[in-house]
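Project standup — Tuesday

K.O.: blocked on the structure for the chain from last sprint. Re-posting the sequence here as requested.
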Amino acid sequence: MAEHFPVLIVLLPLIAAPLCVALRHGGGTWLLATLATWGSFAISIALLAQVLEDGTIKYQLGNWVAPWGIEYVVDELNAYILLVVTAIASVIMPFAARSVPAEMGQRGVYLFYTMYLLCLSGLLGMTVTGDAFNVFVFLEISSLSSYALISLGRNRKALHAAYQYLVLGTIGATFFLIGVGLLYLMTGTLNMADLAARIDKVEDSRIIYTAFGFIVLGIGLKLAVFPLHAWLPNAYTYAPSVVSIFLAGTATKVSLYLLLRFIYSVFGHSFTFDKVVAGPLILVLAVAAIVICSLVAVWQRNIKRILAFSSVAQIGYMLLGVSLGTVMGLQATLLHIFNHAMMKAGLFLACGCILYRVGSMKLVDLQGVGRRMPWTMMAFTLCGLSLIGVPLTAGFISKWYLVTATLERGWWAAAVLIVLASLLALVYVGKVVQAAFFKEPETGVVNLAEVREAPLSLLIPTWILVFANLYFGIETDISADIAGQAAKQLIGASR
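H.V.: unblocked you, prediction finished:
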C-alpha cells in the first residue's frame, strides 16, 4: 500500500467528493470529508518521512514510464508542501462541523464538502504531479471548486467576489496553458524533468522566453502577486469562514510552490536569474507588495479585509526571498510558507469564532468583544504577534532568516524594510486588539451583552494553531532544517 501513497493522497479526497453528493446527509458528509482529509494528512507525514530517509519517490501511473506516461514525483520540496496543505485542511475539519451549518444552513452542507474535497484534491495534485499539463488539469479542479466555495458566503458580495476571481483566475490559467503549449512546441514533452533536460538546447529561442513570461504571469495571478492581487481581498472577506481559512492557509502556498518548481526545476536558476534577469523584477514587486498592501491594511475597517491585504504583503516577503536567488533566501521563503500558513489560518479561525457569535467582522461592531470572548481574542492576539514577528513566535523565525539572507547579499535596505514593515503589521494588528480589549461597545450597533465565548469545537482548532505558532517559534529544528534541505535540493538540481 505504501508504494501507492503518491497517488492515494490525491485520490482519497477526489473519490470522497462525489460520495458526499450521494450521501447528502450533513453529519455523514462531514465525517466522510474528515476521514478523507485526515487520511491524506497521515499519508503526507509518511511520504515526508520516506523522502527524508530514502530520497525522491517516483510513481508512474499505469506503469507508463516517463516521459511517455504521467509521473508523480515526491521530493523534499513538495513533501514539505503536501504536509502544510493537508495539516491546515485537517485542523479545519473539527471547526467546520459547527461553522459551516451556521453560515450556510443544513441544506447546502453536502455541496460545501464536495467542493472542499475537490479543491483539496486539486491542490494536492498540483503539488505532486511531475507533468506540466497535469498541473493545468489540477489547477482547474482547484480553481472551479474555489469559485463555488467563495460564492457560498452569506453576503451577496460573495457572488461578486467569486465572479471576479473566476475572471482573473481564468485569465491566469489560460496564460499558464499557453506557456505550457509553447514549451511543448519547442521540446515535444510535458514531463517536467524531461522539459528541464531539453530546454537547455533551445533556451535562447524567443519562444522559450515567451513561454517563461506566460507561465510566470499565469501563476502570478493565482498567487495574487502585487499588482495582480485584485481578486484576493474580496474573496477572503466575503467567503464563508472555513473557506477563508482554507484558501489563506493553502491555495497561495501551492501557487508559490508552482512558481518555484517552474523557475528552478524546469527553466533553471541560470536561465531565470542570469538570462531573463528576473531577480530585480521580483524584488520590485515584492517590495511594492510589502509596503503598499501593509499601508492599505492599516486603513481597513473589516478584520477579514485587514488580514486579506496582510496576506498580499506576506506574499511579498516570500517573493523577496525568491528574488535573492540564494539558498538562504529560498530557505527563508519556504520557512515562511510553513509559518504563514499556521499564523494566517489561526487568525482566520479566530475570525470565524467571532463571526459565529457576533455575526460581524467590522471593527466598530467588535469594540469590547475581548471581554466577552477572551479566549478567542487571546488566540487572535498571539497569532497576530506571530504575524508581526515578535520573538518566540514562528513569524519571528521566518523574518530572522529573511533578514539574514538579505544581509548575506549585502541588501541592507531590504533588511531595514522588513523591520519597518513589521511595524506596520503592529499597527493593523494593534487596531483590532485595541478595539476588542480597550474600547467600550457603541450602543445600537451590536448587543455584546448577549455574546459569549465560542464553543470548544471552534476554540480547540484555533488554539492548536496558536500553540503551533509558539512551538515552531521556539523549536525550529524540524521546520528550518526541512526548508533548508529542500532549498539546497531545488537550487542544486537547477544548476
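K.O.: great, moving the ticket to review. Residues 277-495 form one domain. Strands lie at 57-60, 71-74.
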